[in-house]
Design a protein that fits this description.
The protein has about 170 residues and is of the alpha+beta class. The protein is built from 8 helices and 3 strands; from the N terminus they run αααααααββαβ. It has a 3-stranded mixed sheet with strand order 1-2-3. The chain is globular, with a radius of gyration of 16 Å.
Length: about 170
């Protein structure tokens, strides 16, 4: 959650999203693995169905759909607008918002690939056309760095910003 919100905050100048979208991202991060309780092999689809079947106080149906799709496409292959727009609630604006949130969730999820929360702190800042994500850690981050590298292409496609991961070793 810290990673996703740090990336979101570091990208404010680029994404143009506000506090409500930040909340949607935060909820998506919290719920992103909920489908694994039903199926480890089809967790993306199961997560989508769990979220859509659950009324969440304070969220509209459209917001729930955006969260559910953000969670789904965290691991599932991204679909075209034509495929996603067959759902009656999906506009071009919703599609773009889902893409932006999904790109951030994918990067943040890669930073905790081992599920051991290896970093002590995280900072994300824009430098020219790069998003520099700096983590402080005493642990080996090889798995996270490899996973992060595999998730950068979608992020770059959505934002036209190249994510770069840097580790500060703590003593």
């Amino acid at each position: 959650e810290k990673a996703a919100l740090a990336i979101f905050d570091g990208m404010k100048k680029v994404h143009g999203l506000g506090s409500r979208e930040r909340l949607l991202l935060q909820i998506a991060v919290i719920l992103h693995d909920c489908g694994k309780y039903i199926s480890m092999s089809r967790n993306a689809e199961c997560s989508y169905h769990i979220i859509m079947a659950t009324e969440i106080i304070g969220l509209s149906h459209k917001e729930r759909e955006i969260i559910a799709n953000t969670v789904k496409y965290n691991t599932a292959d991204w679909e075209s607008f034509e495929d996603m727009s067959t759902r009656k609630f999906y506009s071009k604006k919703d599609y773009l918002l889902t893409a932006k949130l999904t790109a951030i969730l994918r990067l943040a999820n890669a930073l905790d690939r081992s599920h051991r929360q290896k970093f002590k702190s995280i900072k994300a800042s824009l430098r020219d056309s790069d998003l520099v994500v700096t983590v402080e850690s005493t642990e080996d981050m090889t798995l996270e760095m490899t996973s992060f590298a595999t998730k950068t292409a979608f992020f770059e496609e959505v934002y036209s910003v190249r994510p770069v991961l840097k580790q500060k070793k703590l003593l």
